[in-house]
Write a structure and sequence with these properties.
This protein is α/β, with parallel strands linked by helices. Helix content is about 45%, strand content about 15%. It has a 3-stranded parallel beta sheet with strand order 1-3-2, with helices on both faces. The two termini are about 20 Å apart.
Length: about 80
């Protein structure tokens, strides 16, 4: 069964630790928004404020994986 586990919360409450544990335990894909932000900024073409770019990228990746029936685990994934 395909599933999406979304974690949200204040900085420092353990979202990453829980997401990492769940991904290992379930064999899920962990979509870390901070990593996406850093990759986009590293391109040198993005503005300092990414608005919702990383969340939209994570949503597209999660949707692709869910469609293929892989579990997806997204930290702070905001679905439109």
């Amino acid at each position: 069964m395909a599933r999406l586990i979304a974690l949200a919360g204040l900085p420092g409450v353990g979202k990453s630790s829980i997401a990492q544990y769940l991904a290992r335990r379930c064999g899920a894909i962990w979509l870390r928004i901070d990593s996406m932000d850093q990759a986009i900024w590293a391109s040198g073409t993005a503005p300092s404020d990414l608005f919702d770019w990383s969340y939209r990228a994570a949503q597209a990746i999660a949707a692709d994986n869910l469609a293929r029936r892989f579990p997806a685990d997204a930290e702070s994934l905001k679905l439109a």
